[in-house]
Each structure stands twice: as C-alpha cells, then as structure tokens.
Amino acid sequence: MPLVTRSGEPSWARPAPRHGRYGDGGGPGGDSAVSAVRVLVGTRKGAFILTSDGARRRWGVSGPHFAGWEIYHLQGSPADPERLYASQSNAWFGQVVQRSDDGGRTWETVGNRFVYEGVPGTHQWYDGTQHPWEFKRVWHFRPSLTDPDTVFAGVEDAGLFRTVDGGRTWQEVSGLRRHPSGAAWQPGAGGMCLHTALLDPGDPRRMFIAISAAGVFRTADAGETWQPANRGLHSEMLPKPDAEVGHCVHRIAMHPARPATLFMQKHWDVMRSDDAGESWREVSGDLPSDFGFAIAVHAHEPETVYVVPIKSDAEHFPPDGRLRVYRSRTGGDEWEALTEGLPQSHCYVNVLRGAMAVDALDPCGVYFGTTGGQVYASADAGDSWSAIVRDLPAVLSVEAQTLP
Amino acid sequence: MIRVVLPPHLRRLAHLDGEAVLDVPGAVTQTTVLDALEAEYPALRGTIRDHLTLRRRAFLRFFACGRDLSHEPPDVPLPAEVAAGTEALRVVGAIAGG
C-alpha cells in the first residue's frame, strides 16, 4: 500500500528535484530517484492532481479543482509539462477551457468558442434521420509535441479544433468533418465524439484520430485531407460489418518510437495495425472478453500492451466481478492477467476510454481510474497495483506526466 | 447600476463575490445586461447564452421581480426595478441532474 499524503502541502507544491535528468540516474532505480510523476485525473465532479517522486510509493492529492464540473480531460504539454489544459463542462453552463502555466497550482479561463467552420451540415441521428452538427463538449486535448501553445481538441459532435495561441482561440480543422462520409457518421451511446488524437513524432503532418461511431481517420497533410483507416475492422452491429466507416472505435494507442504501429480497443475486438492504419488485424487472442474501452502501450517496450477487459456492451463491468488488467508482451494475441492488488471479487466498476496512462520511468508506471472513483497505480509495469485514491467521483480520464 | 445574481458555479468562474454590479448604458434589456456582464467577466462568455446565436442555454432561467422573464424577447426592456437597481436580475440554473 502506498502512503497517501492527504494533508498539508502536497508534494507537487515543492520544487521538483533538479539534480538530474531522466536517464542520468546511473543504474536500476536511478531514474526513480531523480524524477517525479504527476497524474492528472478528470472526474464527473472535478479534477484531481496526484503527485509522487519517482519511487511512486507516497502520493500527494490535490483537488477537487473545478469542483462540481465534469472534467472530460486534463492534459499536459509534452513541450512544457507545467502547461496543462482542462476541459470543464456541464449541462447548465456548457464548455469552459482552463489553462495552467504552473503545473496546476493556478488556472486561467481561456477560450471556449468552438464554432464549426461554414454551415455545419448534418450527420445521422440515432433514429436514422439527419441531425444538425451541434457542439457539446471537448472530450480530448492533444497538445503539440513541440509547442505548448498549439493544441488539438477532439469534440462532440465529432470535430477537430486547433489553437495556436495557448487556448485563447480555437479554429476548426474542418477537412475532417467535410469528409464525404460525414453525413453517415452516427453517435454511439456516449455521443458522437472525437475522443482520441495521436500525433506522429516523426512527421508533424501525420495524425490519427478516432470517432465513436465512425472509426479511425488519418491525415498526411496536417489536417487538410483525411482518409478512413478502418480496413480489417469487423463490426457485427453494422449492416455491412466490414464497412469503410461506422465502426465504434473506443481508443487507439501508439508507441512514439513506432508510429506506424497502432493498437485499438474497438467496441468489441482488440486490433493492431503495422502499416499506419492501412490495415488492421485482430489480436484479442486469449482475452476473457475483447470488449473494453482503454488501451495503452508500455513506455519502453513497444510490443507490451495493456487493456482492461469489460464483460460486454450490455454489462459495463469486469468479467466475473474481477478487475483485471491484461498485458501482452507480444503485441497482442497472448495475454496475461495482472491481478495483484486489484479486487478479485464483487467488483463492478468500468474503466473508461481515457482513463489509462503510462509514465516514462523505469520500470514503467501504469495508471488507470474507474467509474467507482479508484485510481490504481503500478510502479512495476503492471505486476502489482495499489490504489492511490479510492473514493473520487467517477473517473473520466487519467494522464501521467513524468517530470525531470 | 444593474445588479445581476449568478449561480455559484458562474460566480466562481468569474471570481466574483456576491452580485455583479454593472454599468449598462442606454436601454436595459437581457441583451444589453448580458453584453455588459460578458464584457466585465469574459470567462462567462458562452456559459449563459450561445456564442453564435446568443440564445439562452436551455437549463438556465432569468428571473426578476417575482417573474420568469426567460421567454421574453431578449431586446424587450427589463422591469423598471431592475433598471433602477432596486431589484436584481437573477440567472438561475435548473434543478436537474446530479
């Protein structure tokens, strides 16, 4: 069990250790001695920031920030980890975007004007009729890898926006929504959301996004034009199960060193692509259920992948009431259950698509949050787990920042 | 001076203790009061009315002088007591959801 510090000054309020960079530790555990981790948690009723040194045994808890609001995503800039963005919303007051320049100690309200470019047009509604595109909320932020002021925002109804001024103004990357298939996109049960955006570290013009329930799209020209990237997906819920567009992709993940390899948790099926989304093959293998939401890749092992199997779309909880993370060290197909420290009876929480993340320490830390309000952490790549917190509001998103 | 009472979430967003007190030149209507409110507290833009259409968000109501003014046209003058500052315009969130 970690010792959780809930009182007094949280550890993140102190200056981060400066006596070494990641990789300077000089031997096993060395990285852990000089680094810190900040876990960013978005919940149904506010944001929480969990911090620890590299040992990841004692945690400080800060929050709730923006108490009472839904925080769909809290995300840091890879170019400046002190720069955070928060998507704050609720049904009464709509969307608010908050930005921090000091790692979450203070926040500034920035732009919340998300207006689709031109005449927004329509998409397919639940009953098959056409429905106007309406902005509802920001699901996902993907900050630029090099510029803290540039961020992509994935929104509901599905669209992609970009800021280049640190969130003050947002412009639609409208080529995506103008794809000819747009009128046929449909909402999933959670709404028609653009929930994931991945940037290719080797080519700033390449990007992948995923929409429920349209599927994966990719661009090679910085968002001017987009192509569906769903070949090999098979969804029985579609009239044409192998359709080019219409799949309920729950999450996609990439290891930064292998941008042509993508992993996917689809509504049903765990998939992988080794040709940058040109084609996919199923790697569900021996999972107890291949339904689920979250998927993540180990920070240092591009063939080590994590999922949290969920029983079914009708029963959004772990099979047999046992909360198990499954890890594949072979890039899929063969999976092992990781259970140490996780409840193995009477557990009926869900783990949502944005609620799993890894840090960049060695050993790799893995984190996930549940709809029951627990945030579990593993400091040994998933071999063992303990709860940092147990009683938060339902967790919507988890991100892990590795600090110098 | 025009007084506006906001729900707690919006007061916090605006870093506002108590009522908003606004100088509204000319006619005192929903539109001019909200224009002045948003100019003074830009963080409130989009949270009470839509950025583009300027329509009131569905789960909010405007009350004053014991009346529900939510369905009044936005450019109709507000009650004289609001314009005189003896009564506040109240922005109220619906009791809905958790």
Q: End-to-end span of chain A in angstroms? A: 25 Å
Number of helices of chain A: 1
CATH-assigned fold name of chain A: Methylamine Dehydrogenase, Chain H
Instruction: Tell me the radius of gyration of chain B.
Output: 12 Å
Shape summary of chain A:
globular
| Overall mean pLDDT of chain A | 91
**Would you tell me which CATH topology of chain B applies?**
Ubiquitin-like (UB roll)
Number of helices of chain B: 3
Helix content of chain A: under 10%
CATH architecture of chain A: 7 Propeller
How far is the first residue's CA from the last residue's CA of chain B?
35 Å
Strand order of the largest sheet of chain B: 2-1-5-3-4
Give helix and strand order of chain B, one letter per element, not per position: EHEHEEHE
What number of domains of chain A? 1
List the helices and strands and how they pair.
The complex is a heterodimer of chains A (404) and B (98).
Chain A: E1 3-5, H1 30-34, E2 36-43, E3 46-53, E4 58-65, E5 70-76, E6 84-90, E7 94-100, E8 108-110, E9 122-124, E10 130-132, E11 137-143, E12 151-156, E13 159-163, E14 171-172, E15 193-199, E16 207-212, E17 215-219, E18 227-228, E19 249-254, E20 262-266, E21 270-273, E22 281-282, E23 295-297, E24 305-307, E25 325-328, E26 336-338, E27 356-358, E28 366-369, E29 375-378, E30 386-389, E31 395-403
Parallel strand pairs in A: 1-4
Antiparallel strand pairs in A: 2-3, 2-31, 3-4, 5-6, 6-7, 7-8, 9-10, 11-12, 12-13, 13-14, 15-16, 16-17, 17-18, 19-20, 20-21, 21-22, 23-24, 24-25, 25-26, 27-28, 28-29, 29-30
Chain B: E1 2-5, H1 8-14, E2 20-22, H2 30-40, E3 60-64, E4 67-68, H3 80-84, E5 89-93
Parallel strand pairs in B: 1-5
Antiparallel strand pairs in B: 1-2, 3-4, 3-5
